Amino acid sequence: MAVTPVTLLLIKATNSNMPKYSKTFKIITGSALAFVFIAIGGASVKAATTETKTNPMEALVTAIATKFNLKTADVQAVFNEHKGQMGAQMKAQHSAKVADRLSAAVAAGKLTQAQADLIKAKLAELEANRSTLTDAERKTAMKAWTTANNIPPELMMMGGHTGKRPHGPRGNK
Q: Cβ atoms within 10 A of the Cβ of 111, count?
């Protein structure tokens, strides 16, 4: 039988002939036990909450297909088409906001028209190359680009998020 701190504690509790353990030993043993239980509990929670990533609308697509006796693939195609249309609409709205903000910055004297045109081109380039750079690489490249083009970095945050307040209900206070 392997002698572990847990075993020693159990033996000590049942056998009064065992030598008394120091306070340090008890603290270390208690800490080790707590760590083990926390690690096991954390692994159990992680295993219980880990799910395979699926389409969040998959259950709805299946339910609609079943309810109306349709092919699941046909319903999924309609969902995909709608998602594409919504994405295009959101991009158009974003582009309009960016154009308005750049025009306002030019009118306020914060940017020249040439700088605004550079920003538009850079934002289009970033959108086209979104998947080729990590966030850290993109941030480093943008910092260098804004410095080289004498553009205030805060004007590159054209999506509306300025970092001043969080999004969501708590940010609207």
A: 22
> Hey, how many other C-beta atoms are within 10 angstroms of the C-beta on 88?
10
- Both tokens of 157, joined, read 């945050």
Check: CB of residue 75 under 8 Å from CB of residue 61: yes
Instruction: Outline where 55-112 has alpha helix (H).
Output: 58-67, 72-107
**Number of residues that this document lists for the chain:** 173
At 51-78, the pLDDT tens digits run 566 777 888 999 999 999 989 999 999 9
- Hey, is 125 helix, strand or coil? helix
Rg (CA), the chain: 30
3-state secondary structure of 117: helix
DSSP 20: P
* CA–CA distance, 92 with 147 (Å, rounded to integer): 28
